[in-house]
């Protein structure tokens, strides 16, 4: 059923009277881990990640943006709004005013932090070694696994030169 649904979408994919199905076929091409394009895709992805975060940081210096301290709502403009849509937890029926604070890059482009397994770490990370294992943003870690050169600013977080845990 899923395959027929996808095929149906490809046949009926039109936007502004333009057939987009040809463009969808291009995006469906898979990159083999053994191809030379794989490393270049990882390097381009990491470069795009750094460019995105730097660009957002520069824009936040020029344009005012606020984020609520209790929910994930972001407001771009000089002041926050007074619409009562904030609940500290989703199950709360009470909706209160937002508590606005100045936005930082991580509020708009969050770094999803994951455990980074180094060559000296065991194949399966164990709880007793948690103080020794490194972390990295998920985008950086997946690009590093694909062979991209990681910027030095992540080395401390990733504990690249750290000692292995004594198990």
From TrEMBL:
What PROSITE patterns does the record tag this protein with?
A: APO
List GO molecular-function terms, semicolon-separated.
RNA binding
The record's annotation in InterPro entries points to:
APO_dom
Name the source's superkingdom: Eukaryota
**What are the APO domain coordinates in residue numbering?**
67-152
- Annotated protein name in UniProt: APO domain-containing protein
What is the native source organism of this protein?
Answer: Rhynchospora breviuscula
